[in-house]
Each structure stands twice: as structure tokens, then as C-alpha cells.
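Task 17 of the worksheet. Students: predict the tertiary structure of the chain below and write it out as C-alpha cells. Keep your answer in the requested format; marks are given for formatting as well as content.
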Amino acid sequence: MVSTTTSRSPATTTSKGGPLPPQAQQAVAGDPPPPVPPVAGDGGPPPPPPGGPPALPAVAGACHLQHYQ
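Model answer:
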């Protein structure tokens, strides 16, 4: 039964084969440029502020606790 389903798969693959190549090339060329600028700017500033303040207090508290013990 699985063999029969796989045999029908080729028909669907051929149909997608035509529209896939053109769309894939356009999406790849247009996708990289836009995401690069926004990702770098959005991912750069956010990490330092949120990770800095919380990490400092947490580390200081843990050190004090350890010293007490």
C-alpha cells in the first residue's frame, strides 16, 4: 500500500517542480537582504540591556549567599 502512495507522489512533485525553481530563486535572493539588516539591529541592542541588569543582581546575590554559607 505504501508503494502505491509513493508512485502517485511523482505526479505532485512534477507539478511543484515547475513553479518551485523560479519561486525558490526569487525568494532566496530577496530573503537574505531584508532579514540581514533588521535581524542584526534588533538582535544587537536587545541582548545587552536585558541580559546586563538581571545578570548583575543575580550574580551578586548568589555570591553573597555563598559567602554567608
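Marker's comment: Residues 32-45 have pLDDT under 50 and may be disordered. The radius of gyration is 26 Å.
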